[in-house]
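Recap from last week: sequence in, structure out.
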Amino acid sequence: MRRASAGVRFDVSGIESDSVYPPAVNRLIRALSQLPGIGARSAERLAFHMLKSESETVLGLAAAIADIKKSIRHCSMCYNLTEADPCPICSSPRRNHELILVVEQPKDLIALEQTGMHKGLYHVLMGRLSPLDGIGPDDLTLAALLARVDDPGQNGGVQVREVILGLNPTLEGDGTALFVAEELRARKVQVSRLARGLPTGWQLEYANKAVLADAIEGRQNMD
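Predicted structure tokens:
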């Protein structure tokens, strides 16, 4: 071990995995190993990387982690992640408030928003129906979506005219879409779903049966 002006630095060459670490290091390794995709060995490497890093870098990381827990929340209208409530999308006068695109998770919203093609609002269900996992309608934000459709006051004062279902094309996603569509059918709102089929640049021989079936079902006229 050696000291540097920027803080404590550790020379980890030759350290065995069964070495006894200080309690603070053990706590950090255990905390890092709780993260998705991070095993014990990876957590150990990350911990010692932080020990060798400049103090400003590590403290900046710690501050960033603390900030997301203090400042990030769910938008009260669409349930997207945001620092302001309502979120910038829901509060934008340039968005079409009559059009709502329903997605499963905030990361799906981000992927769609990056295309620049959707000019309406969103609604994040925060999951999908999965009876085997005990996830039912009450575990999603479906009630909030229906409230937006029923009451313009819950949608920025604008009546919803169309709801686009942008759920993932999985068994659970399709089941959720059918359930949501059934709930919306009794209301005076148009219900549609994102198109499916063959992506541009693909070859038929590499497409699976589900993709080909969606392409045939969603075929379009050649005008």
